[in-house]
Write a structure and sequence with these properties.
Strand order of the largest sheet: 3-2-1-4-5
Radius of gyration: 22 Å
CATH topology of the largest domain: Nucleotidyltransferase, domain 5
Number of domains: 2
Structural class: alpha/beta
Strand content: 5-15%
CATH architecture of the largest domain: 2-Layer Sandwich
Low-confidence stretches: 53-59
CATH superfamily of the largest domain: Ribonuclease H-like superfamily/Ribonuclease H
Mean pLDDT: 79
Number of strands: 5
Order of helices and strands: HHHEEEHEHEH
Helix content: 25-40%
Shape: globular
Largest sheet: 5 strands, mixed
CATH class of the largest domain: Alpha Beta
């Protein structure tokens, strides 16, 4: 006993975990193996991780059947030529994904993404209807501005869809600058559109 507390002489067993790169590849929704190598290097000890003897130098997923079926590219995207630097929370990119063919167990039909341009931190929220966009953004904004240095959202980027019409009025009222892509050219929305594809192919890979 020490200071009124009982201490038990126990140590965690790290030798009971047998992790391979292929197992991690599956558990992380068939993520790029190069990124998994970085995960192993920074978070998992040598005692926990066992390298595949016959696949030591293979960092791609060309031999993964599920990746092929789910159409996962498993390659890092090219870096943007846009060199404008933003502070934390200064610019947020967003997109609302179309309704699911099959609803979730709690009747959700959409998901919306909020991407921090500076840190690339991504937040995803499920929605029942498109009319919830404004309320979901208000919750995200309230949580996001609760930071030590008081950073605020200054620029909001989206694809100019009608689903954001109620939010646009609020952004104008709050003095938040909006960056809109031309109508029917969602590819100009950049990162959020690519994120949508990544999310859906990973969901497909998990279901397969």
């Amino acid at each position: 006993m020490k200071e009124g507390l009982y201490f038990l002489p126990a140590q965690p067993s790290i030798y009971s975990i047998n992790i391979t790169i292929d197992l991690l590849h599956q558990r992380f929704a068939h993520i790029n193996k190069q990124n998994l190598q970085n995960l192993v290097k920074n978070t998992i000890t040598n005692h926990q991780y066992k390298q595949n003897n016959n696949n030591n130098n293979n960092n791609d997923c060309s031999e993964c059947e599920v990746c092929a079926q789910a159409e996962l590219p498993n390659k890092r995207n090219k870096e943007s030529n846009n060199k404008i630097q933003y502070n934390y929370m200064e610019k947020i990119s967003s997109d609302l994904y179309r309704p699911f063919r099959i609803k979730t167990y709690n009747k959700k039909s959409y998901f919306i993404t909020f991407l921090n341009k500076k840190s690339r931190y991504l937040e995803i929220q499920l929605l029942t209807n498109k009319t919830e966009v404004l309320s979901v953004f208000l919750k995200y904004k309230a949580k996001a501005k609760n930071n030590i240095k008081g950073y605020k959202i200054r620029v909001f980027q989206y694809d100019n869809g009608t689903k954001y019409k109620h939010l646009l009025k609020y952004l104008t009222k709050e003095g938040i600058i909006t960056q809109l892509s031309p109508p029917y050219t969602h590819k100009c929305n950049g990162l959020p559109e690519r994120i949508n594809k990544t999310i859906m192919v990973k969901v497909r890979a998990v279901l397969i």
